[in-house]
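Why predict the complex rather than its parts? Because the way molecules touch one another can change local conformation, and only a joint prediction can capture that. The input here totals 371 residues.
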Amino acid sequence: MIIIAILIGCILGAIIGINGPVISYTYSGYLAIAIVAALDSVFGGITSVLKGNFELKVFISGFFGNAVLSILLTWLGVKLNVDIYLAAIVVFVGRMFTNLAIIRRYYIDKWSDMIKKRGGLIKSKKQNETK
Amino acid sequence: MKKIQKLPVIFGSVCFILTIAVFVQIKTVNSITNDEGISLNDNAELKDEVLRWRQNNKDVYKQLEEVEARLEEVRNQAATSSEVDKEVENQIKRNNALLGLTEVKGSGAIIKLDENREEDPENIIDINSYLVHEGDLINIVNELYNAGADAISINGKRIVNTTSILCDGNIIRVNGEIVGVPIEIKAICYPHALYNLRRQGGYLSLMVSGGILVEMESSDNITIPKYDGVYKHDYISSNW
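Output of the joint prediction:
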């Protein structure tokens, strides 16, 4: 159900985004870092749903809060002539990989369980037949 | 039950926002890459270097201006003592004005040149006649000097003895600095010399018939900035 909703959201967003406006180059760096932050929040949300400790307020505030905070940090970095956005990218992408690893393990465990069960069923069926 | 319904909606809308942002960003990056013909990340260092050198250049010019101001002060102090010194000081000032080393004011003419961008390209036979070239500027400067101009500037670049007006691809360089349309030529001269410049068969009327937008006005209050560069004499051997 969640996967279908995500797919629908992505397709609708892509359609609107393709026909959307072009922003000025000055702000494209800020938008890029906000995208990375938001992407991290989404993966974090999916992980917490799988773990069963999902909280709506945390998710929504993280989604918008992280994006805004990373934009502010990037802006500060531009003002100070330090590439602070690199730190934000390292943190967000690092967390993304951790979350992806958790999601991957969850589904691998699920599938291997299913295969085991099925294998057990087939074995028991075969045993039944041979009996 | 309610929570199960909520989750997909939230994730769907969040992904919706995210993909809009991603696609807008991709479109922006693509449009810039197409416009410039280069990728954004290639030339970040070069851009940085250019900015740094420009800052250096500015700093050095500031220093030069300060030193010149001090020189002026010292000269003024030295000139207060005797009549001869005052006369010499006045001569130095006049010579500097003629050489283009000081800002000058007076009555004169302003000529504005622009390219007609609204002309339908299909109606244009010779695109070259619709562009302002370096030769046009040279001819106008010559005509102005013929009409008795004392000082001329093109877009704030003073015309002096060592001035070059060069074609550099799709831009013009005056005194080595970039000049582009709209071009504003200021001249301190007899204000009615404009009538002379407007004459039939004169260069400006040729440019007008070629398709360039030419505007002329006379003014009693024209300021022409000083020459930014430095005069260098490496090979003159007389002892002056």
